[in-house]
Amino acid sequence: MSKPIRVIQCGLGDIGRRAARLVLEKSSLRLAGAVDPRFDGRDLGRVLELDRALGIRVSDKLSAVLATTKADAVLHCTGSTFAGVHGQFAEIIRAGLHCVSSCEEAMFPFYREPKRAAQLNRLCARHGVSVLGTGVNPGFVMDTLATIATAVCRRVDAVRVLRVVDAGTRREALQRKVGAGLSEKEFRKRAKTRQIRHVGLGESLVFIAEALDWDLTKVDETIAPVLSEKTIRTKHLTVTKGQAAGVRQVATGWRDGRKVLELELHMYVGATKPRDEVTVNGIPPMRVVVEGGTPGDEATPAILVNCLPRVMEAKPGLHTMLTIGLPRAIL
Amino acid sequence: MSKPIRVIQCGLGDIGRRAARLVLEKSSLRLAGAVDPRFDGRDLGRVLELDRALGIRVSDKLSAVLATTKADAVLHCTGSTFAGVHGQFAEIIRAGLHCVSSCEEAMFPFYREPKRAAQLNRLCARHGVSVLGTGVNPGFVMDTLATIATAVCRRVDAVRVLRVVDAGTRREALQRKVGAGLSEKEFRKRAKTRQIRHVGLGESLVFIAEALDWDLTKVDETIAPVLSEKTIRTKHLTVTKGQAAGVRQVATGWRDGRKVLELELHMYVGATKPRDEVTVNGIPPMRVVVEGGTPGDEATPAILVNCLPRVMEAKPGLHTMLTIGLPRAIL
C-alpha cells in the first residue's frame, strides 16, 4: 500500500468529529491536525471523546495549522454556503493542500457562484491541487446516483428522485434544522428567512442538468412543512399533533416548457418507508432504489473520507462528482 | 455544443448494429465509417435496415478504414476475449483513435491478461488516446453500480450482487448462449468447453476487489443449468420440461479465508422477478435495487455510446470504469 494520506480536519461539529474519528480507523489515512475555534488548545482525542489523547492540539486558526503541519489534504466541515467558505478553500489551496468539503453549495459551486468558482478553479490549477464538495445529500443519492442511472439509457426524457428520511432517527441538529416541533406559523416564518431548509437541493438539480448537458430554462424550489397527524416523541424533542414534523422540499427543472427534473425530499419525524428512489423516464426506463434510504449521519463522513484519494489523483482543479474517478470505499 | 465526435463502428453484429443506429440518433456524435467482413462493400444504411443509404460503405478491413477515414473514436464490438481483440485495439491506438469496446474481458483486462494490458496501456500513452471496455454486464450492474454503492460506507465487509434476467425476453443469440432448450447433458458438455457461459463475471468480481483495494486470496467461478419445470415457448425457441432454461453462474472471492464477494447471475427463460440487487454488508449496510433489472439489449449499446466522451476526456491509457468521469447519458 502507498504512503498514508496526511489529513487535517477543519471544523469539529458533528460531521467533522465523525469524519476525524473515521480517519483514525483508516489504514490509508493519518490524522495530522485539527482546526476549530470552539476547541482551541484542547487535545483532539478528548474532543473526539476517545479514551486517549492523540497528541494533536486543536487550533483556532486554519492558517496556523496549514503553516505548521505536514499534511496532504484537508477534510473541511465548517459551513453550508460557498460564499462563507471559499476564503478557507483559497487558504488551503495556497498552502498546496487538496480539500474535500461537506459544504453543500460546494457540491456544485458553478451554480450560485460561477465567478468565485472559476477563480478557485484557476487557483487550484496554479497550485497543483484539487477541491471537491460532496456528501450524501447533496453529493450522492439525489445527484450522483441519479446521474449514473442514466448511463445505460439511449434517451433520457426526465429524471425524478424521491428521498424519504425519518428525521426521528437522526441527530438533534438535523431534527431542529427541518423544523420538527415548530408551529406551522413559526415554520413558515423560519423557512422564509431560510433558517429552515435542506441546503443543496438546487445544487443536486443543476448537477444532473450539467451532467446530461441539458440547458434548463427554469429552475424552481419550494419548501413546505409536513404537519404531524399525531404526537411523536424522539430522543431529542416532541412533535405534537398539528405541529411541523419536518420538511417537504421540491426542486424542479424545465427544458423548453417541459418539466424534466424533479427532486423531492421528505425529511420529517415519523416519515414511513424511508428510501431513495431514482426514476429515469427514457429508453430504457430505469428505476433504482436504495432500500431503507442512505443513512446520512453515518454515510456523510464516509463519503467525505472515501473521496480523499479520488481528489488527490484528479487533475488539479475545482471538481465535482462528475470529474473524479468512481467513488468507492477505501481501506 | 462542441464539435461532434466522429465514430467508426467496428463490428456489425447485433450489439454493433444497435450501437451504430444509436450513434445516428445522437447530436453529439457522427457516424464516419464501419467495418465488418460479413457486410463488405454494402452501404451501412442497408446493413442497419434504415430506410435510406448512408453513403458509408462497410469495409472488411479495420486497417483500411483507419487509414482512409477522418474519425476520433472507434466503437468496437467484435469479440468477448481480450486475447482475441487486443491486436485490433493496438491498430486503433496506433491510428491515434480512442476506443470504447463491448469486449467483456476488456472491462478489466488486467485480470486475465496483465502483460498485454500493460503493453496496451503504454501504447495508449504513447499515442495520446484511451481505450475502455464496458457494457451492462460486465461494465455496469454487477461491478460499477456495486462499487459506487460502497462510496457511502465507513466499512465494507462483503459485497453481494444478484442479477436475474428472463432470457425469454432477450434476443435469440442470448437465449442460445445460455443454453436454453438443451438437454442437461448437452448443457454440461458445452459448459465444460466454455461454449455456454456468460463472459465477464470474473472480470466484474476482480474489478470490485481492485476498486476496494482488496487482495483476493481465492477466486472461484461455477456454472450450472437451471432446468425448466415446465414447457416454455419464446419467440425463438422452445424449452421443454427438464431441459436447460439457461444458466446460474456464480463468482466468489475470498480474503484470508473469508468470503467477501459473491456475484450471482441467473439468466434463463422464464426467470421471475428480473432485477439487479446490490447488497453491501458494512457500516452502514446498503441495498441498491434496479427494479425490473437493467435490460441488456437496449442498455448495452447505450452505455458504449455514452462512454465515448468520458474516454476522450480521460488521461491517455487503458481505462476501466474506475478511472473515467461519472458515466451518464449523452445528447
Helix content of chain A: 25-40%
Low-confidence stretches of chain A: none
The count of domains of chain A is 2
Radius of gyration of chain A: 20 Å
Written as H for each helix and E for each strand, in order along the chain, the element string of chain A is EHEHHEHEHEHEHHHEEEEEEEHHE
At CATH level 2, the architecture of the largest domain in chain A is: 3-Layer(aba) Sandwich
- Helix/strand/pairing class of chain A, anyone? alpha/beta
Q: How much beta of chain A, percentage-wise?
A: 25-35%
What is the strand tally of chain A?
Answer: 14
Distance between the termini of chain A: 10 Å
Sheet with most strands: strand arrangement of chain A: 2-1-3-4-5-14
DSSP helical segment count of chain A:
11
Describe the protein in words.
The structure is a homodimer of 331-residue chains. Chain A has 331 residues and is α/β, with parallel strands linked by helices. The first copy, chain A, has 2 domains: 5-136 and 299-319, 3-Layer(aba) Sandwich (Rossmann fold); 144-293, Dihydrodipicolinate Reductase, domain 2. In chain A, 30% of the residues lie in helices and 28% in strands. The first copy, chain A, contains 11 helices and 14 strands. Chain A has helices spanning 14-25, 44-47, 62-68, 82-94, 114-127, 144-149, 172-177, 184-192, 201-211, 296-306, 308-313, and strands spanning 5-10, 29-35, 73-76, 98-101, 130-133, 155-166, 218-227, 232-233, 238-239, 244-255, 258-268, 275-283, 286-291, 317-319. Chain A has a 6-stranded parallel sheet, with helices on both faces. In chain A, helix 5 links the parallel strand 4 (98-101) and strand 5 (130-133). The longest helix of chain A has 14 residues, at 114-127. The radius of gyration of chain A is 20 Å and the shape is globular. The mean pLDDT of chain A is 97. At the A-B interface, helix 6, strand 13 and helix 10 of A face helix 6, strand 13 and helix 10 of B.
